[in-house]
Write a structure and sequence with these properties.
Strand content: 5-15%
Number of strands: 5
Radius of gyration: 21 Å
Helix content: 40-55%
Organism: Candidatus Hepatoplasma crinochetorum
Bound molecules: tryptophanyl-5'AMP
Mean pLDDT: 96
Number of helices: 14
Protein name: Tryptophan--tRNA ligase
Low-confidence stretches: none
Structural class: alpha/beta
Distance between the termini: 35 Å
CATH topology of the largest domain: Rossmann fold
Keywords: Aminoacyl-tRNA synthetase, ATP-binding, Ligase, Nucleotide-binding, Protein biosynthesis
Family: Belongs to the class-I aminoacyl-tRNA synthetase family.
EC number: 6.1.1.2
Shape: globular
CATH architecture of the largest domain: 3-Layer(aba) Sandwich
Order of helices and strands: EHEHEHHHHHEHEHHHHHH
Amino acid sequence: MEKKRLFSGLTSTGRLTLGNYIGSLSKLLKLQEDKNNEVIIFIANLHALTIPITKAELLRNVKENLKLYIAIGIDPKKTKIYLQSQIEKVNELFYILSTMTTIGQLERMTQYKDKATKQANSTFKIPTGILFYPILMAADIILFNPDYVIVGNDQKQHLEFTRDLILKLNNNYDTDIKLVEAKIADLKEGAKIMALKNPKQKMSKSDQNKDNTIYLLDDLLEVKRKILGALTDSENKIYYDLEKKAGVSNLLVIYSTIKNISLKKAEQEFKNLTDYRKFKEIVADQVCNLLAKIQKNYHNLNDDKLIEILNYNLKYLKKEANKNLDKIKDKIGLIL
Ligand code: TYM
């Protein structure tokens, strides 16, 4: 049986969060164990340039992200890992795809709109890289022609955009690129972990209020403090209801996904508990146990290993990327 190719990535704009772990990274851990899967993941350091970042920060983020991949249990023997800037062909495909995309399509993207509406005179202040962000993302994906992309809920729109581009390529140029599917977990399985102090908004790496976000490398006492300070409600009953009980629901999802039990089971566990502080302490213990393990692995990792990991499958990945790009270029008429 032919293996299914699974693809995933993260941007090296900052430190990884519990949202990244639950929404995407933890799902990859299970998928890499299935011999019928070929898993490819990467660190998007070109995407990271869309917001101002120093050389030192960028390099630190990439190293930290890579070490965290390994520390959480991604096995470079089972999962192929690369750095976006290592596979230069993505830039060529990015250009080709940009010719098939309208400015209006890009302006409609939520991520762009969020940034664009935040400041006056924004078109003069926002780099075009932010507008083009989804095209580069589509290029990342199409270059490897995967069956599935493993992402959190916030990437849904970008995946739809990528699928549209694939259809356009296949229709206009008669390519046979697979119509990739997004594998996005259910909300109850952690596809969207919310900000602790503001559970109507997603937990984000770049939140100004650091109490909203749990970083995988946060000090454990800080983690506990943040969880104890999470916004809940005044009902003192613990069950899942996204509308009425966004804060409690978020903590329940965090707890059940880390403990690897169903949400129903977690609700059962807390059925008779009416003390939110106790509830938060139990959730915090669960999170801290996980992070303690990750952090121990992280600190045992040597930076020297990183280059080795990035080179492990590079030749194969470049070959795959070249092959796929050449097929597209040939169909378009770019190869004589
Ligand atoms: P990034 O770095 O923002 O996030 C990495 C992954 O984590 C998921 N995620 C979340 N899941 C649940 N709850 C949250 N609060 C949460 N926050 C983030 C994201 O959905 C993502 O799966 N554009 C991508 C990187 C990228 C990419 C790609 C991914 C570039 N090209 C091609 C897949 C395929 C991003 O910025 O992810």
